[in-house]
Amino acid sequence: MSVLMNSFVLGLQGPCLPKTSHALRPVSNPLRSRSVRALPTKHRSEDVQDDLHTLLEILPRDLRDNLRNEPRRAQLLEVVMDLGRRPEARYLGESGGQYLRSTEVSIEELEEAQHAVGEFGGDNRAGIEGTLHRISAIRSRKGIIVGLTCRVGRAVTGHVDMVHDLLNYRKSILFLGRPGVGKTTVMREIARVLADEFHKRVVIVDTSNEIGGDGDIPHAAIGGARRMQVPEPSHQHRVMIEAVENHMPEVVIVDEIGTEMEATACRSIAERGVMLIGTAHGEQLPNIIKNPTLSDLVGGIETVTLGDGEARARQTQKTILERKAPPTFPFLIEMREREYWITHWTERSVDMLLQGERPMVEVRQRDDQFRVVIERQKLYEGDGI
């Protein structure tokens, strides 16, 4: 067992520590403040495949030529085209955007781009077959497309090293983070690693074809994982249950858990012994705790009235909040930045936050040599309840 896994165990020691079938060897003289693991040679740097030329083909010729000569094209995040406004390019790590020309976007240019992309689904999203790019539409009240967001999809290897040790526990993991922080990219690589390296039966419930790409044949970036497409976003929970009942997966991966029915489906899947890897709407654990729709993912919250003696013993009010069930996801990771993650042992963190205390967490980040650095027993710096 790696030093990285042992550091996690030492950081979360106690009765709540999840059981694993692997024997853990004690670490002699562990670092008090942090534990560092040097990545294997093949993961020393990120390997990025973006098929950017395919996305550029749907843009007007002048924008296409402009972006082909752009020195920052490797950091291109998305291209925004709104009717009557100048087209804009946005880049990773930069606030705001850059105008690509001085003239406004015309309705003809939007129609040409729409025809090049093809049919949009019920969620107003479309893709380019064989790629991971996502095209999202803004429509007028009459249903006419008046804006397009052309998002670059990249297959990035190397991110899984931030969480590789947790996969050994075979416990479900929930990822939180703002849009654009890289949640879907991580889902894609975890699917590949679990299928190809851990040899698990992995099924991806791919609602908007963001993980496996557009088209009937999934992108090679998901490795041997299987992909189930969802006809309508509102049917995601049904496809999740169908995946378990029909295809006997050991792992189910689902992006953007956002409704009560999807949260219920997650609990049903977890109770059948299936490992879940998912993302949810929210940036920090307290966002999920306070969200009545999604709080079941972290165990749910209930109001409890204590007796006078119990309240005095706890030194609390008689009416308190408590977690009412085991969390669906034993691990929860806040992706603050692409290379800066906060790891929670969900059960302990939820209990402490409900008691008005700050839990101890792990901070995972990379140093300037691209090595994963884990700081153990860090006091949580997020919001309270």
TrEMBL record:
Q: Where is the AAA+ ATPase domain?
A: 169-305
A Pfam family this chain is assigned to: Spore_III_AA
Keyword annotations from UniProtKB, A to Z: ATP-binding, Nucleotide-binding
By its UniProt entry, which SUPFAM superfamilies does this protein fall under? P-loop containing nucleoside triphosphate hydrolases
InterPro entries xrefs: AAA+_ATPase (IPR003593), P-loop_NTPase (IPR027417), Spore_III_AA_AAA+_ATPase (IPR045735)
What domain of life does the native source organism fall in? Eukaryota
Report what the protein is called. AAA+ ATPase domain-containing protein
